[in-house]
């Protein structure tokens, strides 16, 4: 039986999700997961995020040393040092979007379960909010914003089996509304993100509009 504690598994979980954990540590973590539902849910959430980030990654190679400079900007050490899972994936998301990716859509076959604990709340500079469906709608999910350089929003959305298209609209502190992109779901789930040229701190509400312009769901960031 694994001797690892939940706290120890939380430290190792991002490496397992990213496929970089091997040897006895990997075996110990997997053994722990067989008997711990909370840690199973953590690894599942991190794995979903890692899958999305891998699909978001651009196909072109960045200039030599660019990744290190970006990570340095997010205070991520280049030497091997384990960090909490959220910080690792938060930095990975920032890196992916910093590598020249303006907009990206990811189709996920694993709808988000909003009853799970969100470990993204601990990521430095990242704000998370849950989507609340409008009356008569079933659209849900989570949206994450980051106010660094580059600033970005990333969201996971689900809607019971639909393949609808949504427009993402940001409501700012001064009341202005800005549409920043469009994305679709596949079999009721999907993820989407993009970099932003606006001050993320001014975003108050993220709205998902359906193909007719009606509000399907809203998330209050501040």
Distance between the termini: 45 Å
H-E order: HHHHHEEEEEEEEEE
Which bin fits the share of residues in helices?
Answer: 25-40%
Total DSSP helices: 5
**Radius of gyration, in angstroms, nearest whole number:** 18 Å
CATH topology of the largest domain: Immunoglobulin-like
Q: Tell me the overall shape.
A: elongated
**What are the segments in which pLDDT stays under 50 over at least 5 consecutive residues?**
55-63, 66-86, 97-101, 106-123
What count of structural domains? 2
How many β-strands, per DSSP? 10
Keywords:
alpha+beta, Immunoglobulin-like, 222 residues, 5-stranded antiparallel β-sheet, 2 domains, single chain
What report would you give on this structure?
The protein has 222 residues and is an alpha+beta fold. It has 2 domains: 93 residues, no CATH class; 118 residues, Immunoglobulin-like. The protein has 5 helices and 10 strands. It has a 5-stranded antiparallel β-sheet with strand order 1-8-5-4-2, covered by helices on one side. Strand 9 and strand 10 form a beta hairpin. The termini are far apart.
Mind sketching the topology for me?
Blueprint (H helix, E strand, L loop, with lengths): L5 H12 L5 H11 L3 H20 L9 H8 L11 H14 L4 E4 L19 E5 L1 E2 L6 E7 L4 E8 L6 E8 L4 E8 L4 E8 L6 E7 L5 E6 L2
Antiparallel strand pairs: 1-8, 2-4, 3-10, 4-5, 5-8, 6-7, 6-9, 9-10
Short description:
The protein has five helices and ten strands; from the N terminus they run αααααββββββββββ.
């Amino acid at each position: 039986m694994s001797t690892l504690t939940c706290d120890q598994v939380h430290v190792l979980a991002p490496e397992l999700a990213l496929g970089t954990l091997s040897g006895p540590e990997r075996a110990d973590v997997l053994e722990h997961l067989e008997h711990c539902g909370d840690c199973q849910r953590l690894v599942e959430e991190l794995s979903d995020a890692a899958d999305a980030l891998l699909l978001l990654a651009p196909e072109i190679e960045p200039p030599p040393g660019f990744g290190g400079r970006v990570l340095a900007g997010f205070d991520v050490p280049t030497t091997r040092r384990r960090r909490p899972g959220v910080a690792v994936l938060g930095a990975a998301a920032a890196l992916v979007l910093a590598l020249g990716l303006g907009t990206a859509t990811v189709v996920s076959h694993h709808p988000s379960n909003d009853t799970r604990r969100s470990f993204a709340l601990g990521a430095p500079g990242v704000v998370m909010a849950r989507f609340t469906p409008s009356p008569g709608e079933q659209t849900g999910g989570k949206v994450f914003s980051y106010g660094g350089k580059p600033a970005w929003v990333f969201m996971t959305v689900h809607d019971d089996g639909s393949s609808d298209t949504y427009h993402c609209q940001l409501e700012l502190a001064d009341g202005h509304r800005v549409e920043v992109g469009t994305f679709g779901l596949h079999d009721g789930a999907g993820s989407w993100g993009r970099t932003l040229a606006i001050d993320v701190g001014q975003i108050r509400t993220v709205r998902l509009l359906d193909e007719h312009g009606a509000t399907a769901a809203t998330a209050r960031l501040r």
